[in-house]
């Protein structure tokens, strides 16, 4: 995009012919200059009517193309890195959750089953001790829980 600058002459300001010894600043006052410029500004621009998109679009003319391309390349790099991070985190979460289900769930079930078996053995041992006490047999010291096969 090429911007063409063209000088526009203001018709309201007439060129005056200066006599010898007169300067252009002798005829201008601050009130005349400010009133001329303030009328133009007030008629054309109302900041309340301008949207955020229009303000950002106006920055396109202010920011040089090299800076814009640099900002855009940094934006692309950051967004691609963020996308890769989110995708990698999702993949890692999937691997961890499936591994936990495939390894952890059977392990937890095996531990629960072993606990149930040990508890049943204790109950059987207590029942046999209760029967021996009722029959009047001499008491034996419990030796602890023996695993099957020993």
Automatic annotation (TrEMBL):
Region (Disordered): 13-41, 128-150
Compositional bias ranges of the Acidic residues kind: 21-31
Keyword annotations: Membrane, Mitochondrion, Mitochondrion outer membrane, Protein transport, Receptor, Translocation, Transmembrane, Transmembrane helix, Transport
Keyword Chloroplast: no
Membrane topology: Single-pass membrane protein
GO cellular component annotations of the record: mitochondrial outer membrane
Domain of life assignment: Eukaryota
Record localization: Mitochondrion outer membrane
Keyword Mitochondrion belongs to the record: yes
Pfam families in the record: Tom22
One GO process term, biological-process aspect: intracellular protein transport
Main location: mitochondrion
Family membership: Belongs to the Tom22 family.
Protein name: Mitochondrial import receptor subunit tom22
The organism of origin for this protein: Kwoniella heveanensis BCC8398
